[in-house]
Amino acid sequence: MAESxxxxxxxxxxxxxxxxxxxxxxxLAAYRDRLGPRQSDFPAGILEALRQLSGTxxxxxxxxxxxxxxxxRLASLADVGRVxxxxxxxxxxxxxxxxxxxxxxxxxxxxxxxxxxxxxxxRVARNWERSSIGQGDEVFSRTIVERVERLGExxxxxxxxxxxRFSGMDSIVAHNLRSVLCVPLKxxxxxxxxxxxxxxxxxxxxxxxDRNLLAAFADQAAVALxxxxxxxxxxxxxxxxxxxxxxxxxxxxxxxxGVITSDVEDHILLCNHAAEGILARPASALLGSQLSxxxxxxxxxxxxxxxxxxxxxxxxxxxxxHPDLEGRGRVALSLSVTPLRTSSQxxxxxxxxxxxxxxxxxxxATRRLFERxxxxxxxxxxxxxxxxxxxxxxxxxxxxxxLQGFTALGETVDPETLVSVVxxxxxAAAEAILEQEGTIDKFLGDAIMAWFNAPVPQPDHRLRxxxxxxxxxQATEALRGEMPEEFRLRFxxxxxxxxxxxxxxxxxxxxxxxAIGDSVNTAKRIQESAASGxxxxxKEAIGSILDQVExxxxxxxxxxxxxxxxxxxxxxxxx
Length: 575
Hints:
Elements: H1 10-39, H2 46-86, H3 90-105, E1 109-116, E2 119-127, H4 142-151, E3 155-157, H5 170-174, E4 179-187, E5 190-199, H6 208-254, E6 258-263, E7 268-271, H7 273-279, H8 283-286, H9 291-298, H10 302-312, E8 316-321, E9 324-325, E10 329-330, E11 333-341, E12 347-356, H11 358-373, H12 376-381, E13 390-404, H13 406-410, H14 415-435, E14 439-444, E15 447-452, H15 461-480, E16 490-506, E17 511-516, H16 518-529, E18 535-538, H17 539-542, E19 549-553, E20 568-574
Parallel strand pairs: 16-18
Antiparallel strand pairs: 1-2, 1-5, 3-4, 4-5, 6-7, 6-12, 8-11, 9-10, 11-12, 13-15, 13-16, 14-15, 16-17, 18-20, 19-20
Helix pairs in contact: 1-2, 2-3, 2-6, 14-15
């Protein structure tokens, strides 16, 4: 009962019918023998017909089995084709393919080799146990492999040891090879690799059908392998492009300059973080917008300039603009515009590079102001990296000058007018001092303090101070001629030479480069004792230049805080 439910193949049905015919013939023969010749009434030739029927059925069974085997091989080939084309994960696919081939052909081992830089290299090596063969155990007939690669034709041998084509080949003898099957892998007629299968124990294992089967599979495998290779190449290229894109984005983001690019249709394509900060607006507000809408906000002249760059494919470098930006106020920007080109030099838009000069211009303005307050020589000597509180002892010639009548004038005019008048006198005095390369220390209301011989040594510092004092008086007299009567003021000047400490005085938060010491105080006392329009020099200041100037000894000065009177000379001019 159970047997009737089993579905049998055509070959099994034929085998059963052959057995039934043979059993029937045997039973009839036995029955005839029991009856004897006289009693047998069998039709003539019935037993021979049954014997022929049994043989025919056996032959049909062989044909059917062979057809089933071929169908199985074709099914396996189809399965292998599906495996090959089902994935681009090359190692997994190749291992599965080689395992299937070993199963179909009964090979002991199989190798798949691919051409790499002109040399065949083993990509997959498997054995009948579905295990990978180690690199040290990859032994095969290189003679056969090289011939298949060179000729591009498959090779089949049922016994390599006795095959005249390979007689005396060392690899055949050394590896005791018997059955060998090797077919080429071709793409567009070019050999890209080979598939090699062998069995070292059995002869006659492979047939022409195996060769044809393997050749058919090789055609599929070659295309699939080429696709996988191209896919891997695309993946590598994509990875490289992604890496370069990431690198470009990192570099783009880290650039201190603002960078904006636009396409041929004037749409903004890229905007880095620096540009966001400089323009005080997010990238989301810039990307996709028209560059022509942004340019007028930066400068009315910028639109035509950028259009000229596009038209002539030239460049605009270091164009300075001063827009008022929302959230930042008035800023100073340096703008460069260049065509955006492809690798083939085709113009695809423009690139704008923005450098924020606001802080730099502010520092420059501060320096210019500082230079008006402090001698440029002092500024040149200052190293911001090495500024330290304290100073060093130097011999200097100190000059003090103040305006006589300033206090009285301040009682009669408004403060703005007073400052304007005083500034004109102080500017004339400063110009005279700087002309002799003196260092202006400070302005004290209507007074000015300066010195010579520091920070740059000046061997003739006494003479320079005398010339500066005379130049100051001469400039003042010229200025008096331009002033209304009530604004005609004069300086009184005191000059003294002696040691003083020069350096940074103050605290870490507020410092001043100045000179302090008794010699500085002495110069101040001499100035305070001078009459309006006169220049008094101490004995120390005039001692070595007395023969170069016109001067007369004046009444000694009893300065506050001094035990002895100060010997002074009134300077009249130069000899």
